[in-house]
């Protein structure tokens, strides 16, 4: 049996507001969505699991009106995880993902996310093996592969993510054939115009881009170019 095509789900662009102008964050969210972005990627860091401190549920709640119907994709780089899930769900998150190293019970954390009405995702660091998700695929809406070490924006893409992406795509496609369940495959870290095509070709369907978008002078043109490159080469 042939594997499911990489484009079984439409490709999505999810700008990371970690690279946005925090002094005008609501306006940035509204502008980047008007420019063609699909999701808003929200990086929550705690200066404990990762060496940086960013934004929390209050900021998520504050930007929700500016996001409208667009999904807020909350990436929790925090430890412990479970207590923050209800807070982000109440604040307007549509999808919450977390790192298995930060949860005592990955299956339970996934269930808590779903119980609070959100889609659920797991995030794998560059050195975290895919085996961590093999037994919880039935609870996943999204698998996020980090292509940098988490904690800071603006880092360079780690090339070894590409073979890992291909392995993840094979795993997800096999699960889809067996269960009918489709799981998004997202990549975060160093996604740029010059590499999004090979990232898409390796199997990703959802792309987090921070500085590539917010560092550009024309959000609309950059998002259109990212999407075009992903579709053409993916």
Describe the structure.
The N terminus is likely disordered. The longest helix has 19 residues. The protein contains eight helices and eight strands, in the order βαβαβαβαββαβαβαα. By secondary structure, it is α/β, with parallel strands linked by helices. The chain has a single domain, classed as TIM Barrel. Helices cover 35% and strands 18% of the residues. The protein is globular, with a radius of gyration of 16 Å.
Descriptive keywords:
234 residues, alpha/beta, eight-stranded parallel sheet, 8 helices, 8 strands, globular
Proportion of residues in extended strands = 15-25%
Just give the CATH class: Alpha Beta
Number of helices: 8
The CATH topology assignment is TIM Barrel
What is the general shape? globular
In short:
The protein is an alpha/beta fold and 234 residues long. The protein has helices at 25-34, 57-67, 84-91, 106-115, 161-179, 196-201, 211-214, 219-233; strands at residues 12-15, 39-45, 71-77, 95-98, 119-124, 142-146, 184-188, 206-209. The protein contains 8 helices and 8 strands.
Secondary structure layout plus pairing:
Elements: E1 12-15, H1 25-34, E2 39-45, H2 57-67, E3 71-77, H3 84-91, E4 95-98, H4 106-115, E5 119-124, E6 142-146, H5 161-179, E7 184-188, H6 196-201, E8 206-209, H7 211-214, H8 219-233
Parallel strand pairs: 1-8, 2-3, 3-4, 4-5, 5-6, 6-7, 7-8
Helix pairs in contact: 1-2, 2-3
């Amino acid at each position: 049996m042939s594997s499911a095509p990489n484009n079984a789900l439409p490709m999505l662009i999810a700008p990371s507001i970690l690279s946005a102008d925090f002094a005008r964050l609501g306006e940035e969210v509204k502008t980047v969505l008007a420019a063609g972005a699909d999701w808003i990627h929200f990086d929550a860091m705690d200066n404990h699991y990762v060496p940086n401190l960013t934004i929390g549920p209050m900021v998520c709640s504050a930007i929700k009106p500016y996001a409208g119907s667009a999904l807020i994709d909350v990436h929790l780089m925090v430890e412990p995880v479970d207590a923050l899930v209800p807070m982000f769900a109440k604040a307007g998150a549509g999808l919450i993902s977390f790192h298995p190293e930060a949860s005592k019970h990955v299956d339970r954390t996934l269930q808590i996310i779903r119980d609070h009405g959100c889609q659920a995702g797991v995030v794998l660091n560059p050195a975290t093996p895919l085996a961590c998700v093999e037994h919880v695929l039935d609870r996943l809406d999204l698998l996020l592969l980090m292509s940098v070490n988490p904690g800071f924006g603006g880092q360079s893409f780690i090339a070894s993510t590409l073979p890992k992406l291909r392995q993840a795509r094979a795993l997800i496609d096999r699960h889809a054939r067996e269960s009918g369940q489709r799981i998004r495959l997202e990549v975060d870290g160093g996604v740029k115009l010059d590499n999004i095509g090979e990232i898409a070709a390796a199997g990703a369907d959802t792309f987090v881009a921070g500085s590539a978008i917010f560092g550009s002078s024309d959000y609309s043109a950059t998002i259109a170019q990212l999407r075009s490159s992903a579709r053409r080469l993916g």
